[in-house]
Structures
1.
Amino acid sequence: MAGQAILYDATKCIGCRGCQVACKEWNDLKGEKTTNRGTIENPPDLSADTWLKMQYFETGDVQNLHWLFGRRSCMHCTESACVNVCPTGALYHHEMGFVAYNKSKCSGCGYCVEACPFDIPRTSGSVVGIRHATKCVLCQDRVTNGNIPACVKTCPTGALVYGGRDEMVAKGKARVSQIKSKYPNAVLYGEDELGGLHVLYVLQDTPSVYGLPENPKLPISSTVWQDIVRPIGWAAAGAVVLGLGLNYVIAQRKIKLKSKGE
Amino acid sequence: MTTSAKSKSKASSTPASEILFGPKPASGEKLLPRYSKHVRILHWVTAVTWAILFITGLFLFVPVFGGAARGGISTLLHHFAAIVVVCWAAGFFVFNLKGSIEGIKFAFKWGMADFNWLKAAPAYYFFGKEEKMPPQDHMNTGQKLWWLIVLGCGALMVITGALMMIFKGIIPQAVFMWAATFHAVGMVALFAMALVHVYLSVFHPKMRGIFWSMVNGMVSAHYAEGHHKKWYDEMMHHQKETKGKK
């Protein structure tokens, strides 16, 4: 498959959160005031000002404890629910493969927030309704100018790499077979999910351990709205206008003739 | 010569509003009261707010207009218009409880006459053939149909709209998405029928001029007899009775 992709190798990640900081710096996102919740994981959730967030999972028991690192950000799906439901075309597929965003077209309706199978987009702004959507855009401004995404650029261990998607898939597969003996549950996540993700994860355990859906699906409603209701709407409105026009032409002549005859 | 000059001067003196909406009942014509002041106000509040709701909603339905929705100003307007019309309709219902319930009940009361009306309607609306049209009450079958659609789709729009506006983030994602989908379905149905409603009340040659009944609240007795015979007879009967009592 064509396009570019990010490969995140959870087994090489040291959980330093450099990527999280680099994302904020490059995209000029404000820091958020949070409280100590007894975990290094912070802030608690993605937000309009946090497009990338590292996650920490503890599995196993005291004798055999695993501290797993996960990455939470836009997965840049090929079959993306957010692009399907975006009414204004603010979210769209870039030819480089990622899900791009044009803020000047966004109405802030928030349909993308509800449609995303990974629960990634957020809306910023006040309760009264003036707002806009936010999410990782794979550093659209950087990659379209020959640079690599900020998170990849800053990663000190090579856990994040960026390149052609085919190459990234091959790299991820090779890495999985390398670590399979140590981590029998290891998988490459994103090769075929939702038509192929443009953010691929090498995971040392099953996706559900990382809070990822094992088999992400497009919500049916996300296709019904645009692919069925919209064309039917056009057809219905068109048929009514046509019918009324026809009625006007016929009734105008027939009924006028009749009243003249009377 | 003189007659043509007269008719010419008459035509040129027709105000623009009558050219657009049809002639008002001629002065001296016998009129019957048809719509109370509160009904007329409710009608026009609904008409204006629905126009706003429709236009701002269309921004999200037609990608080409998407730019007009940016920043969410249109969303704000949409929410405002929705709150106004829902509050107004609810207020009307509460303060005119008896009439409202009667009106709603009436829309659901269907008999053989209604089906015969539907059968005869195409010939009537296209060719003006009145012979087979059964006599109609205050609301004819077509108006009942429109009223049913307004009530049904209105309820659908209020429920799905409230889910998205008030309960966003509280309800599951799938519920929100289906609410958005059905909101669009309701919009299509309402818009299509609203076109028919406007067309019939303003442009159809058989009803040209009836627009003014929603402005002045009065309808000419002649029109009432032709279009709402049952109601007309009732009114006449009622008038005779009250006169007799006096």
2.
Amino acid sequence: MSLESSEPNRPYGPEPGHSPEAAPGRSPLDAGSAPVPAWFLGVLAVAVFWTGAYLFTYSGGFDSSVFDFKPKYGAAASGPAVPPDPKEVGRKLFSANCITCHQANGQGVAGQFPPLAGSEWVNSDATNRLIAIVLKGLQGPVQVKGQAYNNAMQAWEAQYTDQQFAAILTYVRSDWGNTAPPIPPEAVKQVREQVKDRKEQWTMAELQKMPAQDVAKNAAAPAAKPAAPANAPAAQTK
Amino acid sequence: MADHTAVPLIIDRAHRLGRSIIAFYLLSGAAWLIVSSLFWWLNTAQAFAPNAWYAFAGVPWLTYGRVYPAFTNAFVFGWASLTGLGVALYFVSRLCRLSWRAGLLIFIAGIIWNLSLALGLWHVLGGGSTGRELLEINPSISFGFFLAAVLIVTWLLVEFWAYRNQLRVIPLWYLVAALLCFVWVFTTGQAIVNYWHTGGPVQPAIQSWYVNGLYQLWLVPLALGAAYVLIPEGVQRPVASLPLARIGFWGYGALAVWAGLGLFLGGPFPAWMQTVTIVANVLLILPVLALFANFHRTLDGRYDFAGANLPLRFAMTGFFLFVAATFWSAFISFRTVDYIFHFTLGMAARWSLLLAGFVTFTLMGAVYYAVPELLGRRWLLPGLLRLQFWLAAAGVGMLALDQAVGGLVQGFGLADAKIEFSAVVDIIRPFLLVQVIAVGMLFFSYLLFGFSLFLVLCFRCLERVRAAAEPVAPVETPAEVSVA
Amino acid sequence: MKRFTPYFLGVLGFFLLGWLGMVYYPYMAFAELRPDRDATTNEVIPPGLPGTAVQGFRVYAANGCVDCHSQYVRDKNEGSDIDRKWGARRTVARDYMNDGDVFLGSSRLGPDLTNVGARQKDAAWYYKLLYSPATVNPGSGMPAYRWLFTTRKIAGQPSADALQLAGEDAPPPGWEVVPNNDARELVGYLRALNRTYPLPEVPEPKE
């Protein structure tokens, strides 16, 4: 079966005069004209219906910031964010500066820096005093847990915002065995207002003379609080 | 034994250069099939027993993570693409009035393609993989594919426009569309992901689109075009319905381009993109049903023709696998099902049915159809060819079933968080073993395929050598009449 | 369908539609992703990977880790990833916006690695896993990657990062196994894989 061509440059194609168009149906490759079967049209109709329903139910409004096809987190699937756990935030902020003196385990350094774990200053209801300490600093002799310390803590009010202070103090009051209630940013704001004219660090005597005010409880804005930090930490994977 | 050669489509005058070039594509494709399936077999063995001696655990260039891209790239860019190109060139040039004046260009394109693939795979095995599926070959090397494809497509477009060729018959719709789409899909994927190295979430989005484009807009149309030749030719009846064929073609083209993100369902992409992909995957059933109805009517009950006609047998089996692949794809796209099947062996089942199944079977059928005419010789050892078919069919069937069931088991294991991950790994080991066996069968089937081709080639060469060596018949003169 | 031009335009049109929807639009939309700055902690969310980790991309890619490990966490209604503690929340587009190479992966022959740096912080664990996965995870499907390490004679004192190996993995007495640069880069990358920071668009699912 030799198929050598004697005219190497002739293209493929039918013999002259034998055009396939001239004789339709001659080749198996020509297509017949049977109509589209009715069942197919039925399936097509169902498919169109299903497509519309599925496409518009599960596309999150064709919004590219919506990832969840079954929005379950509330209004407009890219809904209000759950603020990060303030305790975690507070721990991060604490780790930036505070641990230098008070240490990561809140134990401080014996004779030098007072502990925060179990400290009566940290856990007391007189939260205005605690906030005042971190805002303006503390100097001179101070008694913490029956031990005497005599050092200087700088004023931190310029370094952090109210939210950041609130987070740090909430963390400090809830870790290492402390179980005091959290401190909201409004409380910090309130105390910051109260002490804004003060230029120097506090001394222990001045703090003890300060009227005890649980600004945390008073300023606590209702409900919409970064909810029960009790739940969130469990869900947080490390 | 029935004649395995095809009835010529149109009486044509073969052009020697064209025949040789097409034969070169088909033969190099077959060689890559054997290479890629060897990598595949090794890969399945490594998945089953990663630290056994036959898994070559200590050899860096044969580690699982490098053999796997070597296998997929060799399969897609070697076997499927090269054979697909050869088949496309063969059918297109036979069905249209194409000239082979620029044949040398096509030949050079083939050489570039083969070289790029070989170099690229060597680089990947050596540790230069980019880590992104089907984009693993270094972009400087895979540029060769782009170059070769541009050469071929330019030639094709010039031929069509300059010579006012027409798309008279259905196979041409698919073959030409495949060639056009390839350039665009390939360029988009390589440019955005590899050349510009765009980072962030857009990278996997484009990468999955690119992979899907290569499968559904390049390889599948090539195979469908071949099926549209082999099936009507096999039963010597025209395709039953032109309207159905149109629905099948345009429906498929409209939907397939959206179906890529199924690879990363549940991933960091907006809900609408994932939903669109799911819808596209499911709706693809429709054009495939149209194709199926069309072929069924065309065959008109003559399924038994496949007994005698090998190309028809391959094409029909391939098409059934295509229908299965489409249904499976649609099934695992639904989010409830995807919950179970994602990340499991079940996703590989789609690959097995579509590529190792449909595309491979149909292209093999086309090779069985084309080679006798190209090389001027019928197939030897028909029994071998039948054995090859059954091995391949059994292998793909076993593989797909194993991956589907294995995927189910693995999926249920993963879905239950109380089951330790290591326990899930244990559960699927038997399925990984069956994979090894199935792919081994496929490897031997492909070896037989390559061997048959090799035999035909050898005999063809022998014939030519013999013809060249024959003494020239002496000129007859009245005085010297020689008795031949 | 006889004439070429309408056919060509038809194919082009359908393809272009899909290209615009699934390539062009996402490309543009993702290019507009911006990080946030957390008001309280002043951090950039999402944080990028440290420089040493970026080199790890190359090793991760070259050895095909993405072929067995995935790197995204699915939502509770799409997968059991959160129940498996592979993440506290699903991952979204912004989690990957700073990554030059994104290895989402589509196969879990090995566990998900999105937050592996949060689960395992010890570099020595990673080195041991890469050198001898079977001793760290018995029955694991992971091959050993010993070419990422060098076995050399102990010069004076054993190196600080020499692997603690036992049994048949242990080198002969007087020799030690230390990680190569490739291993260091890869482990640096793996240890930095940590997407546990919260993002406003993805609240963490309650039970």
